[in-house]
Design a protein that fits this description.
Layout lengths: L5 E10 L3 E6 L2 E6 L8 E9 L3 E11 L26 H19 L4 E6 L10 E8 L6 E6 L7 E2 L9 H17 L13 E8 L5 E8 L12 H10 L2 H9 L6 E9 L11 E7 L3 E5 L2 E5 L9 H15 L2 E9 L5 H6 L3 E8 L2 H13 L5 E5 L2 H4 L9 E4 L8 H11 L3 E6 L2 H13 L2 E9 L9 E8 L8
Parallel strand pairs: 3-5, 6-21, 11-12, 16-17, 16-19, 17-18, 19-20
Antiparallel strand pairs: 1-2, 1-4, 2-3, 4-5, 7-8, 7-10, 8-9, 10-11, 12-13, 14-15, 20-22, 21-22
Helix pairs in contact: 1-10
């Protein structure tokens, strides 16, 4: 096999995340391709060929896998880059995820109880947050608002009928897209740093059905003249006809109720959803969601699990793993808006949350008052720094870090200095989890119980919950 060669083969196995073992010319080789399903016959372009493994790009599925028994429900399937498992039955989806996580864990852990995977109560229309991008359907093509095309960094698909998003999202997206297509407004170009339209952020609570809509734009069509001046804001308001857009959104026949329509200015050169300033066009800049009998205020950029009904399943498991801890102190590191901390507060002596996003910390404090909890404390700052400043010693630590896991230096401090009796690690990326488990076990933590929760039906994503308990370390690391 050579670089640049187009090869055909059968996918023998898929590891998380989308690492496929292909059998090519009777030889099993590890080829990294995206969205493969075990049993498919595929055509791939080999982009890197080495003795140990190859890397390639999926060109075409030549034959479906025997386990592909479903017809895709989403009209954007195959064009949009998401929801790659729609051709599998839901029971087969969770089976595949369970097997992938178990294989990863078995490589780094031994003698632990694997409790399988819990299904999401809702498999379609479950997302309570969607970030859509403005762009074009192809180079210099018509305005698009939606998700990236599969395999493309630039081209977009206007997903008017996304099936993992609530129907209200699709109406809102279509309304905003039509408004700016009518105005012929320019989208923000990543390389040239020109244009205005950047993102559309929509959030809808699963329980309360409250909706928050946030249009994210640059403050000027030309980056050099951008600036958050009052004059710029007024000009942009008139240019984008935001009064008319607000009117059109409020007239939509939605199932939920719009609580706020916002305009966020973002002049970052990077292609990220950042908040330089947010202007309320209608209503308020927050909404409420309910979980396990508690009520939480959520703002546009607050972290909150994207599947509200699946989150209740996840947090019930965390409660079960924590057990009876009424005389214990719990640290909730990477606490977000404080949902886990507040759900654990009734079974703890005290819960201390640490979160780097100040907006989330303020929301957590407000939520604590709203839920009448007196034993929660929230600290704004980086876990790496704040862990040294907290005087209390935890009996229990909950880790719910970003996708890439715990910062290595922070993990060393947590495992080597803090040394809580037990740790619960919640991860949406099993490869990051298993990497961090190696470090925790080196410091004497033993993996006791593990389970998965399918928070992301139709996609390859999965949430994993791991309970560790302090044991005598085999090797002390100083």
């Amino acid at each position: 096999m050579k670089k640049g060669q187009i090869a055909e083969g059968y996918i023998k196995r898929v590891d998380f995340p989308n690492k496929a073992f292909l059998e090519i010319d009777g030889e099993e080789r590890k080829v990294l391709i995206k969205e493969g399903i075990a049993g498919q016959k595929v055509q791939v372009l080999l982009t890197k060929v080495r003795k140990e493994k190859c890397e390639g790009r999926l060109l075409k599925v030549l034959e479906k896998a025997p386990i592909e028994t479903e017809e895709p429900k989403c009209p954007h399937f195959g064009e949009c880059g998401g929801c790659s498992l729609q051709t599998l039955s839901y029971s087969e989806q969770v089976k595949q995820k369970e097997e992938q996580v178990k294989r990863l864990l078995d490589e780094v852990c031994s003698s632990y109880l694997f409790e399988g995977i819990y299904q999401s109560p809702v498999q379609w229309g479950y997302r309570n947050k969607m970030e859509f991008s403005f762009g074009d359907e192809y180079k210099d093509g018509p305005l698009a608002l939606g998700m990236h095309k599969k395999g493309s960094f630039y081209d977009l698909v206007t997903v008017r009928d996304c099936r993992i998003a609530d129907r209200d999202y699709n109406q809102i997206l279509d309304c905003v897209w039509r408004h700016f297509a009518e105005l012929k407004t320019a989208y923000y170009k990543k390389m040239q740093h020109t244009g205005i339209l950047r993102h559309l952020l929509v959030r809808k609570a699963g329980k309360t059905k409250e909706i928050l809509i946030d249009l994210v734009t640059a403050s000027s069509a030309v980056q050099e003249t951008a600036g958050l001046t009052e004059e710029n804001e007024k000009q942009l308001f008139e240019e984008l006809k935001l009064s008319l857009l607000t009117k059109r959104l409020l007239e939509l026949p939605l199932e939920g109720k719009i609580q706020g329509i916002l305009h966020t200015l973002n002049d970052s050169l990077a292609d990220v959803v950042r908040n330089d300033k947010t202007i309320v066009l209608y209503g308020q800049d927050f909404f409420y969601e309910e979980l396990l009998g508690l009520r939480f205020q959520i703002r546009p950029f607050s972290f909150f699990q994207t599947n509200s009904f699946g989150t209740e399943v996840l947090y019930q498991i965390v409660r079960d793993y924590v057990g009876e801890t009424r005389d214990k102190v719990i640290f909730d590191l990477y606490s977000g808006t404080g949902t886990i901390a507040q759900i654990l507060a009734p079974v703890a002596k005290k819960v201390i949350g640490v979160e780097i996003v100040e907006e989330a910390v303020e929301a957590a404090k407000e939520n604590t008052k709203r839920n009448r909890l007196s034993n929660c404390e929230f600290i704004a700052g980086d876990v790496l720094e704040k862990i040294d400043e907290i005087t209390e010693k935890p009996d229990f630590i909950v880790l719910d870090p970003p996708r890439d896991g715990v910062h290595p230096k922070a993990l060393e401090k947590i495992a080597g200095r803090v040394q809580a009796e037990k740790i619960i690690y919640i991860s949406c990326k099993p490869t990051s989890l298993t990497r961090d488990l190696v470090v925790l076990q080196r410091y004497g933590y033993q993996v006791e119980r593990v389970c998965c929760v399918d928070m992301f039906p139709q996609t390859a994503g999965v949430e994993t919950v791991c309970l560790l308990e302090k044991r005598k370390p085999d090797t002390m690391v100083m």
